[in-house]
Write a structure and sequence with these properties.
This protein is an alpha/beta fold. The chain has a 6-stranded mixed beta sheet, with helices on both faces. A 4-stranded antiparallel beta sheet has the order 2-1-4-5, covered by helices on one side. The protein has a two-stranded antiparallel sheet with strand order 11-12. The chain is globular, with a radius of gyration of 20 Å.
């Protein structure tokens, strides 16, 4: 169990986390959703101990990770940020091997177990065939799967993914989400991710956490969370909710900005 208690963090007057309390059970795929600036990435970075909270605790299996040893944390949870250095001159295998660093001494060679785990991660992320190719030679979707293989090689119970499908076309988005589902269902890993595609979040998640203005607006199953009221109050849009193979899907109605006039046709000045 991962528990957030009275968590507070502000990096400006407008953006931050406000006295948040949250329980994240093991073994689920959990997606954090909300508008831009609602605190999603900040929350994920706090859980990953990449930011120091101004108040509160983050308890992982009974231990406060805020004061825990970083190497010990890296054996329990790992985070894949939204952006990576695309100019890294590594092969796919060299990148994935970085995931084993928390388990080895500095300058020590990789053990046979390390090599087997790297092979497993490459295969699970479906990048084994690219292991000797450089990252710069891969497509965006292939490169993202290589990064996911790296966090898999870290062998943690918790995987934190910050918008893992961003900048990918729909085919590669679904490939990434299928890998996430396999990680969870076959290997019982807990996945906490941020997704901007709300329908994909509903399709691939056991639990949704809706954030607004640095607080938890609502959490629960996709069926519990998806409602016309939630979309109106959190995202400011009108939607209709439909069932798609047992999972909710929303369809937006025509978007109208509150307090704004309708767009009117204007003559093209150079016509």
């Amino acid at each position: 169990m991962l528990t957030v208690k009275d968590l507070t963090y502000h990096h400006s007057k407008r953006f931050g986390i406000n006295e948040m309390n949250l329980e994240l059970p093991k073994g689920e795929v959990i997606s954090i959703i909300g508008p831009n600036g609602s605190g999603k990435s900040t929350l994920l970075r706090l859980i990953a101990a990449l930011l120091q909270p101004q108040n509160g605790e983050i308890i992982l299996d009974g231990k406060n990770i805020v004061s825990a040893n970083r190497k010990d944390i890296a054996k329990q949870l790992t985070m894949l940020p939204q952006t990576h250095d695309v100019t890294l001159d590594f092969t796919v295998r060299e990148l994935v091997e970085f995931g084993r660093n928390p388990y080895k001494r500095k300058f020590a060679p990789f053990s046979q177990k390390d090599k087997e785990i790297v092979d497993w991660a490459l295969a699970l992320a479906n990048v084994k065939q690219y292991e000797h190719q450089h990252l710069t030679s891969l497509s965006g979707g292939e490169r993202q799967r290589a990064w996911i293989a790296m966090v898999l090689a870290q062998s943690t119970e918790y995987l934190l993914l910050d918008e893992p499908t961003t900048f990918l076309d729909i085919v590669h988005q679904l490939e990434i989400l299928e890998v996430v589902q396999t990680i969870n269902q076959q290997y019982n890993r807990t996945v906490i991710m941020i997704l901007h595609d709300l329908n994909q979040a509903a399709q691939y998640s056991d639990r949704l956490i809706v954030m607004k203005d640095g607080t938890i607006y609502q959490q629960g199953s996709p069926e519990e969370v998806f409602s016309e009221k939630m979309f109106e109050e959190v995202f400011g849009i009108s939607v209709s909710i439909h069932d798609m193979d047992g999972k909710p899907m929303f369809i937006p109605k025509r978007f109208k900005r509150k307090g704004k006039k309708e767009c009117t046709s204007l003559p093209i000045p150079f016509a």
